[in-house]
Amino acid sequence: MNKYIVLITLTILNSLTLISQNNFSRYDAIDVQKYEFHIVVNDSTDVIYVEAKVAILFKTPVSSFSLDLVNQDLFNKGMIVDKIVEYGNTVQYEHANDKILIFTNIQESGELKTFSIKYHGTPIDGLVISKNKYGDRTFFGDNWPNRAKHWLSCVDHLSDKAFVEFHVTAPSHYQVIANGTQIEETNLNNQNTLFVWKTDVPIPTKVMVIGIARFAVQHIGETHNIPISTWVYPQNKNDGFYDYAQAKEIINYFIEHVGPYPYTKLANVQSKTRFGGMENASNIFYSENSVTGERKHESLIAHEIAHQWFGNSATETDWKHIWLSEGFATYFTNLYMLEKHGDSIFNDLLIKQREKVIIFSKKQNTPVIDTVTMDLMKLLNTNSYQKGGWVLHMLRKKLGDAIFWEGINQYYKKYALKNASTEDLQHVFEEVSKQQLDKFFEQWLIRSGHPILKTSWKQNKKNIKYTVQQTQKENPIFTFPLDLKIIYVDGTSTTTTVSVTQKEKTFKLKTRLKVKEIIIDPDLWLLYEIHQNN
Known about the structure:
Structural class: alpha+beta
CATH superfamily of the largest domain: tricorn interacting facor f3 domain
Strand order of the largest sheet: 5-4-8-2-1-11-14-13
CATH topology of the largest domain: Immunoglobulin-like
Strand content: 25-35%
Number of domains: 3
Largest sheet: 8 strands, mixed
CATH class of the largest domain: Mainly Beta
CATH architecture of the largest domain: Sandwich
Number of helices: 10
Distance between the termini: 38 Å
């Protein structure tokens, strides 16, 4: 998900996402294997009719278990469960507090059962039923972070991935896009058409979606046997086809640098998502105004495509590790821009992102791995994006390009289609580099803040005394290499590196000429701030 635009966060969303980051523990007894959602929509009302067939592996004997589904509120919004059946037998249940408590009798671990849950209602959120900017009616899934439960009966947590099929019956003037591969399109009568989409790999509910609208569709070919398509509103199809065609070159970069693309297709979709872009698995939803005909959003497209590997396939185990999704997408967008446009654009991105980290730290001094913030929308912040990206940049400097890329490749290979934590990432890099990285990960991710430096120097003939002070008050001392570019009066220069390990230390440097100035971190490898005198 991209935050290059302002995130629209409504008060109701804050309350809906205000949950414990360890809430998934109540699902420890079950593991959803597959969802099959049969969904009927219409143009007369916003009511949807759903039959959800949920295949569940029971990991322990239980007499009941729960699935997430928002129940109807006082304004008649939300879902009403009509019936639950298992092998033709009616199952007892209770639907309250946005959960379905289903009573069963599982005697042994390892049992696999499929429950058919029929329900209907008007979604409060999750499936956004509205009109697009041209006044046409549309239906778009928008699940992140835990809004799938507004229209899908599910385990609405990123730790439980599952296969999914969407069987969507819609008025025939619509087209339907969804995760995976389209396996059926059938005209049921003069009014309605059935569309069936199916994944061949498991995905988390945060990126399980459908899009129903009048679309103009362009198939722009394949790369590495992956078909790529563009789905935009007919009214701006030429602009949309031109803008989204950049995806083909971008996906090539990630396949060649990170690993095989994890899904069977990539569709880039103009939509009603509230985010600048939403990285739904195999069909990315972009905001309506991302279509300009001027290719203004190359970095947005790169960011969302990067998520197909980081966040969708290799998914964080819990929300406190969200930087494994957003920080990765941010930095790998930078790396794509470096290869496509060169050092100048790359360095400009680093400078701007570092400045955002500094500004954010003045407002909220929290670590990247945030175990305190329970409002998931508030985790979409500079720490998760820009600081997370900067941590990867400094790790690349610490290990060198070859080991960094080997670590990324091994991490993705190991955790593709699975879940990973920050500790898992650290262990992979330690195995690849043969280095202990506890200190690096602890000071940049588990602790808050960054070094705030005050420097001074004096020259005495061919010697320089260079003093570095760390002036940050809230945080302990950071340890890091500091590159110094020494510029001489004749215009030549040399670069040296000192190891900063104390609150204040003076380094003795050799020099051959009178020094004009000394520049800190000339090649942009350190997340730091210059001390400002009051």
